[in-house]
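Work package 3, deliverable 3.1, input record:
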Amino acid sequence: MACTVAVDAMGGDRAPSEVVLGSVQAARAHPDDLRLLLVGKPDCLEAELRAVEWKGANVEIVPAHEVIGMGDSPIVALRKKKGSSIEIAMNLVRDGRADAVISAGNTGACVAAGTIRLGLLPEVRRAGIAVIFTPGPQPVVAIDVGANINAKPEQLLQYGIMASLYARKIIGVESPRVGLLNIGEEVEKGTSLAKATNALFTESALNYAGNIEGVDIFRGGCDVAVCEGFLGNVVLKVSEGLAECLLRLFKEGAERVVRELAASQEDGVSEQAVAKVQQALTGALAGLLGKVDYSEFGGAPLLGVNGVVIIAHGRSDAKAIANAIHVSQRMAEADLNRHITEEIRAFSGQKEAS
Amino acid sequence: MACTVAVDAMGGDRAPSEVVLGSVQAARAHPDDLRLLLVGKPDCLEAELRAVEWKGANVEIVPAHEVIGMGDSPIVALRKKKGSSIEIAMNLVRDGRADAVISAGNTGACVAAGTIRLGLLPEVRRAGIAVIFTPGPQPVVAIDVGANINAKPEQLLQYGIMASLYARKIIGVESPRVGLLNIGEEVEKGTSLAKATNALFTESALNYAGNIEGVDIFRGGCDVAVCEGFLGNVVLKVSEGLAECLLRLFKEGAERVVRELAASQEDGVSEQAVAKVQQALTGALAGLLGKVDYSEFGGAPLLGVNGVVIIAHGRSDAKAIANAIHVSQRMAEADLNRHITEEIRAFSGQKEAS
């Protein structure tokens, strides 16, 4: 079965060129089962396609004449810029012309357009953005990182259910352990929201690991970390900043090591040895970068909307776009939303029966 | 002028041995201007002192027969365990027998004992814990990381004032830029607490840098980052977990480089060269570790209480304890609390006049 993915080709810091390039790469990698609809200004996208070797790639342009900028206020922009690329892309899924959407554009506009155009899945209260933290011993799905900054306990429980299914169906974790991000393990810890949410999770049929602390995300303490969107967004950006900072320090350290070695060649360190060290350190750095690189995640799924939506990082390059497209294809093929609907229903039934 | 510091010798994962060792090291480093009161079980502390070379170090034991454990509920423990080491240490400052307290024990008990025994400075609404983030281009004082999880805008403004003075008087930043940790720069971003606090900071006479995002802490975007205690505590522990995780990955990468080099000696890489690379990488790793090592910070000041209180990390070793003692000495000598009192008064005056 061929999967059709609508790509918001105008969204992102490096759109449209990197988005178009990544789309063509993704389409080439799946010639038999992937079709892409590039949504955006036709002239502009045609020019971008001409610039890359796109012949034979299964891509098609769908016109959209407006673009919502990264700095635009989502609600205002959606109202004023009718027919924007993100809106048209969502409509393609709503109308059954595409199986999934990906966008590296304005996150708030993606959430709003997804929620308004696609609607929520039955009984789902709020959509949530999930991201995958990869530096620890295994990947951890963190939800919500910014879709909903006024979350209620019931909404957080639904986030746990949805992210748990994502971990099972897309990442392949058999029985994901769900933790609630808090300031201590004890039940009396945290804000009133955290306490009420912990009680709700404890009563639920989820594989609940209890309250977790920030360190546990990186120590294998859980497979899913639930938090409200304000906290999740700050945590995501703090992690991004710290990782960026430590990698720069590591790179500087490695360069210093190579310089010192090169300067001490009279002490029996050959030029060949210096080249070898340089190569090995470059390899080690690339491996590390891969552990924290957002472009490897394949973007952040917006869970809870009635359609597959992936929000890619604003700075996405072609590789990140291609990975986001592949993840959206996997989500569509795994029929994740059907599983979410069934599970959310089962949990509501349980609640009513109890 | 000699400074007297009361040390909660029973507090911390590695108490009393590392605490006693660190205290003796600190006292030896400042033979003329530092006197330490080790608070705890006399038999136990005498044995610890005998085990280290303490002759000539200006330390004295002050008996306390109870110990509040790391897992104890702070309020319950303070009520049931009368005369605990942390309580006696606070009393020494209250009674003018010591100029500062340091403890690596139960954080909640430190905050509660500090607030109850010492009281708050005039007009200060709530005490806040500040920590110093060091990986970025310059240190950043983050406040509050867990003393107060139901903060109000006025309390957050006072945190900004107090941490700003800490940055000026203790770290030496001339005019600290204060940022409010939020999910975007725009004034309409964030929770209702964030919006109200941003408005209050904007009107204030602080050098306010506006809303900041998590990445800014590590990119030189501010000198002080203000947030409420739940958020700050999670951010602190996420940073700790991520740094620990990335450093382990760096270390493994460096070891792999050395192993690969050693295995390829037939290719013209001498044993001497391998040894040199190993040494250089170990040095680079140590430098990196120093950038994220909590033991270098010298602990977290509890700002707003009527006395100098430093909360050291629960895992503190001797070096961390010695650094915490030195920072508490600097805070006492700089008369930080007098400056805080004056500044808080000036800000209230301003508000009343306006």
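Residues 229-263 of chain B form the longest helix (35 residues).
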